[in-house]
Design a protein that fits this description.
The complex is a heterodimer of chains A (142) and B (70). Chain A has 142 residues and is α+β, with helices and mostly antiparallel strands. In chain A, 32% of the residues lie in helices and 24% in strands. Chain A is built from three helices and five strands. Chain A has a five-stranded antiparallel beta sheet with strand order 2-1-5-4-3, with helices on both faces. Chain A is globular. Chain B is elongated. With 70 residues, chain B is of the alpha+beta class. The termini of chain B are far apart. A two-stranded antiparallel ribbon of chain B has the order 1-2. Classes of the chains: A alpha+beta (142), B alpha+beta (70). At the A-B interface, β1, α2 and β3 of A face β1, β2 and α2 of B.
Chain lengths: 142, 70
Amino acid sequence: MSRTKDSRPRPGASPPIPDAELAVARMREMSADLRGCAVLDAAGAELAASGGSDWASAGQALFAAAEEAGPGPVSQVHVATEDGEVFAVREEGLAMVAVTERFTLASLVLFDMRTVLRDLAAGEGIPDRRAPAPDPQGEPAA
Amino acid sequence: MSPKPHRILLDRVSGYADEAGAYLRRRRQTRRPFARVYAAGGRSVAYEPGTEAARALFLAASRLIDAADR
């Protein structure tokens, strides 16, 4: 999927919600251990989520706790608990929070989250792999 | 001079015991909850589970886990 320059989101503007949903779908596709994730905008509001509820306020609480902890402007957070692992990444005015099973490969999850957020912020579009590509001949797939 | 047979056996058993102890230590280490925050400049800080900052991070993390499982 590609877009013309004019249709890209302005810097600092939220991406369209369908793109955020594609970002969530892509994360689910890439990370086998993922239990759920959500994309938040610059204000902390939920743009898309994989299911569940209350992602926005819980995500904001995590970033607030990380800011309070005080190593400086927070770029990412990783918390491992007995019930699962939580990741949060900020990139170019957007944020993503994700919950995975325990003992997941943290560096891969963080890399995937950052990559998806960069693509989303750039407005280049996220490839939609949820459905097969339409047949140009109009014939149903065998 | 070759070592006595019982010495070889003792060395082997103590080697296995060391391996098992190291495995249990690693397992304890990896099972321990932790919280790590990365700042924009690449600096990261790990918070010990007993600290106030870690408590706030664990609380927020458990809310997110609840959100995912709901």
